[in-house]
Amino acid sequence: MPGKTTLLAPSILSADFTNLKASVELAEKAGADWMHCDVMDGIFVPNITFGSFIVQAIKQCTSIVIDTHLMIVDPDKYIEDFAKAGSDQITVHLEACPHLHRTIQLIKSLGVKAGVSINPATPVSLLEPVLADLDLVLLMSVNPGFGGQKFIPGAIKKIMQLDAMRMEMNPEMVIAVDGGVTEENAAMIVDAGADALIAGTAFFRAPDPVAAAKKLKGLE
């Protein structure tokens, strides 16, 4: 997609939780398109983060899209809570949903955009039965659970495969990439077909987050 605008979604997991409002305002100032909220339960992934109350707090600080990524088992139990808290889009993991189509329909029934994420070892072909129903797919380019990991190079081929699939089945669907995104590899990821970049360390831990955001978005 020549000339397309890259969406930037700073991951709140890397923000300063002693001053969450300032972190959100910094992301807005830098031109962020989404605020990415990583929800982990210590079961599906080896880490615990936060619940819907943090999403609610962020919603009170900003008008930009709240992008909630549920890295949890049995997400159906909590989807309504996160929708009510202010999530504009909710992404669940294919690996955590035995009845994935039903979960997607639950998200949509709450007036929220629906996304599905897959781990690095999960082939994109498994998304084919639900691809037409999705607003976004989040490809993990690290194994989920912790920030600051290195990008797995094999993700580039998966982005290209998914881009070809969506052109045939759901051209409006957004491809997002999460994990190890940096100023150095952002252009390569976008060139492969990604529309949105999830950036935690690369944004919030940068010496100049505003300058980092411009580079990540391909504006300089």
From TrEMBL:
Pathway(s) annotated for this protein in UniProt: Carbohydrate degradation
Catalytic activity: D-ribulose 5-phosphate = D-xylulose 5-phosphate
Record flagged with keyword Cell membrane: no
Pfam families the UniProt entry points to: Ribul_P_3_epim
An annotated Gene Ontology molecular function: D-ribulose-phosphate 3-epimerase activity
Active site annotation, chain numbering: D38 (proton acceptor), D178 (proton donor)
Enzyme Commission numbers on file: 5.1.3.1
Cofactor binding note: Binds 1 divalent metal cation per subunit.
GO (cellular component) term, any one: cytoplasm
GO process terms (BP): pentose catabolic process; pentose-phosphate shunt
UniProt-annotated binding residues for substrate: S11, H69, G145, F146, G147, G148, D178, G179, G180, G200, T201
Enzyme class, first EC level, given as a word: isomerase
NCBIfam families hit by this protein: PRK05581.1-4, rpe
Name of the protein this chain belongs to: Ribulose-phosphate 3-epimerase
Organism of provenance: Chlorobaculum tepidum (strain ATCC 49652 / DSM 12025 / NBRC 103806 / TLS) (Chlorobium tepidum)
Gene name per UniProt: rpe
